[in-house]
């Protein structure tokens, strides 16, 4: 009597797509994308990265935005588990790094609870890639010896304790902070950050239409409105901004940066 081989579920690969530029993919990420049968991807993954997939690969977008979700997180988890249980290897392609504001931990837990093998492929986080393009050192001797990443788009923003995260010898990087920028400015000022603290906004970092703009903290919300800055964008708060190539958009601030150099 012939023995039937036991069924083996597929593997879910949580892959970081980096900040946008396909050249910043890891070799492991590029190889997995190039051989993928099924890719479940975020909306911020650059089309040039998706173009690396085989012509017959199935691409499923689970794009999210502040006002609209193509698919709820719980449904994404269920999708990954369902496809893997059907025997398919799934490349779950996420912008930046899966474990930095990518909800990769939740997807990993869901798969592991279902008995699905998970492999994590780290990616260059937006903070690292976008700051590098702008020649903005997140740490700098005598300017910053600590860096903190926070999410600016979440419930209870005003209740979060950011005390000590920005100020002398500190760099604060805020993800998803454009819409809440007035509240962020108010929050940081209330916690003692000087109004003239240098701030950079890194828009669409590492992409062909990237912009890096610099101002002072008390002008941040107005800058975002004046320049019509769009997502994806990062906000960097700290003295390290004056060492960057971020373009000072106000003459007063340009003179301030020159005097501080």
If you had to describe this structure to a student in words, what would you say it looks like?
The chain folds into 2 domains: 11-124, Cobalt-precorrin-4 Transmethylase, domain 1; 127-260, Tetrapyrrole methylase, C-terminal domain (Methyltransferase, Cobalt-precorrin-4 Transmethylase, Domain 2, 2-Layer Sandwich). Helix content is 27%, strand content 22%. It has helices at residues 27-34, 47-50, 73-85, 104-113, 126-133, 181-190, 220-226, 251-260, and strands at 11-16, 38-41, 58-61, 90-94, 117-121, 144-151, 169-175, 198-203, 211-216, 233-237, 247-248. The protein has a 6-stranded mixed β-sheet with strand order 6-7-10-8-9-11, with helices on both faces. The protein has a 5-stranded parallel β-sheet with strand order 3-2-4-1-5, with helices on both faces. α3 (73-85) packs across α4. The longest helix is centred in the first third of the chain and has 13 residues, at 73-85. The protein is elongated and about 60 Å long. The termini are far apart. 43% of the residues are buried. The mean pLDDT is 91.
Mean pLDDT: 91
Strand percentage, roughly?
A: 15-25%
The top level CATH class name of the largest domain: Alpha Beta
Number of DSSP strand runs: 11
